[in-house]
Design brief:
This protein is of the alpha/beta class. Helices cover about 45% and strands about 15% of the residues. It has a single domain, classed as TIM Barrel, CATH 3.20.20.220. It is globular and about 50 Å long. It binds flavin-adenine dinucleotide.
Length: about 325
């Protein structure tokens, strides 16, 4: 059994607000994620959420956060839709989780849809709302908007966004994360070029990297070796996606260029159409991956929760016994 991850110190006062959700209101000590990784002696467990589309979705999400909060995550992060499509919802939700629930948060910030002044405005809003961590992303064009165009004075690649944030007067107010793909970003001509491009992001001021999900740890370990050989020294956090549905995971893996090992492919065929068996397979596979990652002393693990808690909680229980 692995050591329990460290906790982030918070001071508590009784929550009195969000309907249908009995969480404690607490005031997080302002902490940058870069600092959390630097100071913690234990791996940092974190969770990713997305802004729901409906009120029911919000209720589900806040129940999920309430349940996952008991696991004392180092931080949680909130995605922003392609092209910045959920900008307000993402910013508001990230601030609400920070202020009302007291967790350390990170706001995902894809830059292709924004002009620099708009990015500046979002950063000002986040800082005023107590959010001091951003995941600086290029993002992808929204699939449902064929007219989408990057503004002429906008950002082409994530390294430009990182540089923009790092050059602000309030640089110290933010720790900056960036994305990476252990199996190589689908647009990159080859793995070495992709790592060279990741190095540009790190040289521009990235404090830590969070990876896309993968199902074979060897890809992650090889990727980390390539990054270290290229002089990338920041923490590289593996992203773990517990499989929820067979069709969903095949679609997402196809878009990202994520491979299924032969054994998992066979298992996916076996459980297809059986929700319970798919869930059990997802938990088992992710637990197996995490055990090996923790044994190899990763700085943390980021779970893609899809706004649900049961799989992440069960995996956590398997790993840490509580
Ligand atoms: C942990 C994680 C969270 C994510 N969250 C979101 C989210 O909330 N919202 C969202 O829209 N998307 C999100 N994404 C998806 C991400 O936006 C896509 O993967 C996107 O295609 C690439 O983003 P990036 O920041 O890695 O881009 P970049 O680092 O800009 O890389 C994109 C491609 O361009 C190449 N490249 C990079 N820099 C240069 C350069 N200077 N010159 C030439 N080529 C270059 C790279 O090799 C790569 O092939 C997330 C991805 C991850 C891994």
């Amino acid at each position: 059994m692995a050591t329990n991850p460290s906790t982030v110190s918070t001071g508590f006062a009784r929550w009195s607000g969000y309907p249908g959700c009995e969480v404690l209101r607490c005031y997080a000590v302002v902490m940058s994620i870069a600092e959390i990784y630097r100071k913690s002696k234990h791996p940092i467990i974190s969770f990713e959420f997305f802004p729901p589309k409906t009120d029911v979705g919000y209720r589900t999400l806040f129940r999920t956060i309430e349940e996952l909060r008991e696991l004392e995550p180092g931080f949680v992060s909130v995605t922003m839709g392609a092209g910045g499509s959920t900008r307000s919802k993402t910013v508001d939700l990230t601030i609400e989780i920070t202020r009302e629930i007291g967790l350390v948060t990170m706001c995902h910030l894809p830059c292709t849809g924004f002009r620099p002044t708009e990015i500046g405005h979002i950063l000002d809003q986040l800082k005023a709302g107590g959010v001091h961590n951003v995941l600086a992303l290029r993002g992808d064009p929204p699939q449902d908007d064929p007219e989408f165009q990057t503004p002429a004075d906008g950002f082409q690649y994530a390294n430009e966004l990182v540089a923009y944030i790092a050059k602000r007067d309030d640089r110290d107010a933010f720790s900056i994360g960036a994305a990476c793909a252990p199996e190589t970003h689908p647009e990159a001509p080859d793995a070495a070029t992709d790592v060279a491009n990741i190095k540009r992001k790190v040289d521009a001021g990235t404090d830590f990297l969070v990876s896309n999900f993968f199902f074979e740890n060897a890809h992650f370990f090889d990727f980390v070796d390539r990054c270290r050989a290229a002089g990338i020294e920041v923490p590289i956090i593996p992203g773990i996606m517990p499989i929820a549905t067979v069709s969903g995971i095949r679609r997402m893996a196809g878009m990202n260029g994520t491979a299924f090992p032969a054994e998992l492919e066979t298992e996916l065929d076996r459980v297809d159409g059986n929700d319970e068996a798919t869930y059990a397979l997802g938990v088992r596979w992710a637990t197996m991956q995490c055990e090996e990652l923790l044994a190899r002393e990763v700085d943390g693990i980021q779970f893609y929760t899809l706004n649900r808690s049961p799989a992440a909680r069960e995996i956590y229980q398997n790993l840490f016994g509580r």
